[in-house]
Amino acid sequence: MHGKDFLRMFAYDDWANRECLSAMRASGSVSADTVGRMAHILSAQKLWLERILQQSQSMPVWPTATIDGCLVLADEMSTAWRNYLARVANQFAPGSLDDQVEYRNSKGELWSSRVGDILMHVLFHSAYHRGQIALQMRASGVAPAYTDYIHAVRQEFVE
Predict the structure, then answer these.
(1) Global pTM exceeds 0.90
(2) What would the DSSP string read from start to end of 24-92?
């Protein structure tokens, strides 16, 4: 994949996260665990971008949050990822998708990963946890968001 492909995939991811948040809000009552999973998706996105940019971790991986707090973080992450990926796509950012990023995981272990692999991880991580959110919502009798990628493309939510 190229930078422009990642721009498109992250646009879909942002749309899907917002659809989940809308469904959570519309339900009137979702568990703190369900909201916590969405907060985790967004905080992990922030953590990975901070790692790529060689910045210190600014928030916990499993933060306590509200739906409104998640919406604020979703706005922040949407803008931050779009700006970063636009620079990569236009080759204005130093480095490339093949560059290695060294970081410490939550256990303190030192790792090194390709930027492109980190980007794929962020996308798959989000989809994984959105699936858990949908399952939790269904189990509590609430309709989850319809976030299939092909649906987003057909409805022109993603160009």
Answers:
(1) yes
(2) HHHHS---HHHHHHHHHHHHHHHHHHHHHTT----S-SS----HHHHHHHHHHHHHHHHHHHHHHHTT-
Q: Is 118 left (phi over 0), alpha (psi -120 to 50) or beta?
A: alpha
What does the CA dihedral 9, 10, 16, 17 come to, rounded to 10 degrees? 160
Q: Give long-range contacts, CB 8 A cutoff, 24+ apart: 104-109.
A: 106/61
Length of the chain: 159
Q: What's the rounded Cα separation, in Å, for the pair 142 and 64?
A: 22
- The span from the CA of 134 to the CA of 78, in Å, is 21
pLDDT, one tens digit per residue, over 24-79 is 999 988 999 999 999 999 999 999 999 999 999 999 999 999 999 999 999 999 99
What dihedral angle (degrees, nearest 10) is formed by the CA atoms of 87, 92, 95, 98?
Answer: 50
Q: Show the domains of the chain with their CATH numbers.
A: 3-154 (1.20.120.450)
Q: Which residue has tokens 């707090």?
A: 69
Determine the Cα–Cα distance for residues 91 and 54; give it in Å rounded to an integer.
18
